[in-house]
Amino acid sequence: MALLEANGLTKKFGGLVANENVTIKIEKGTIAAVIGPNGAGKTTFFNMITGFYEPDEGEILLNGKSIKGLRPDQIAERGITRTFQNIRLFKEMTALENVMVGVHSRLKAGLLGILFNLKRVQEEEEKARVEAYKLLEYVGIEQIANEAAGSLPYGLQRRLEIARALATNPEIILLDEPAAGMNPRETVEMTEFIKRLKSELNLTIILIEHDMKLVMGLSEYIHVLDYGRKIAEGTPDEIRTNKQVIEAYLGKSASEVS
Ligand SMILES: Nc1ncnc2c1ncn2[C@@H]1O[C@H](COP(=O)(O)OP(=O)(O)OP(=O)(O)O)[C@@H](O)[C@H]1O
Description:
This protein is an alpha/beta fold. The protein has helices at about 40-50, 70-75, 95-105, 110-115, 120-140, 155-165, 185-200, 210-220, 235-240, 245-250, 250-255; strands at about 5-15, 15-25, 30-35, 55-60, 65, 80, 170-175, 205-210, 220-225, 230-235. β1 (about 5-15) and β2 form a beta hairpin.
C-alpha cells in the first residue's frame, strides 16, 4: 500500500478545471516531484492534499485512511505538512518565534493556557523554545534566530519555512518550489538539504519545482500535470524522454520540428 494515495481528484473553479481525475500514489521514504507548465494544477493538487481545498471528486488516503475533508491543521496532526510557493511566514516575528508556532501546534497547552500564563504553559514555552532552536540549528540558520523573519534574505526564509514545517513532526513534507528565487549555489545547497531530510529524518518528500536540474537530480519518481490532467509518470530518465512531456513544455510545434 502506498503511503499517500490521491485517487481521481478533480477540482473546478467555475468553468476552469484545475485538476481533472488526478491519481497519484506516493511510496513511503521516496522523493517524488509533481511538475508541469505554469497553471498546470500543481499547487491546486498540493492544496487538496493538505486540506486547503476540498476536492470536488476523488479520495485522498493516508496509510489507507481517508483524510479528505479534514482541515489543514488536522492533516498536519496526521503527519502531512507543507511549505508555500509564496512564503508564508509571520514577517514581524523572529525566526525562532515562527518555528515555535509550529512546535506549539502539536503541544498541548493551547491558547487558553497561553492567555492565562499557567505554570505548565511556561514550561511548555521553554520546551518549545529549545525545540525551535534545535530546528533552526538543523536547517543551519540558528545565527538569525532573533531576527525578524521578514528581514531575512529569500534563501533563509525558505529554510525557515522548512524548519517551521518540520516542527509539526511530519511524515510527509510537501515543498512548493523550494528553490524559487535562489541563485545556483543556494539551489545546490537546497538540493543537498532535501536529500538530508530524506536520509536523516526518514521523511517522504513531494516537491513542485520548475528548476529541472533540481527535479531530475533529486526525484526518484516524477508525476507530470498539464492543463489539470496527469499526462505522465515515471523515473527522471523516463520523463526526460517522454514525447508528451516534451510537447507540454515546448509546445506541439517544437516536437514536430525536431
Ligand atoms: N482559488 C482559485 N480560484 C480560481 N482559480 C484558481 C484558484 N487556484 C488556482 N486557480 C487556477 O487553477 C489553475 C491551476 O493553478 P495552479 O496554481 O494549481 O497551477 P500551478 O501548476 O501550480 O501553476 P504555477 O506553476 O504557475 O504555480 C490556474 O488556471 C489557476 O489560475
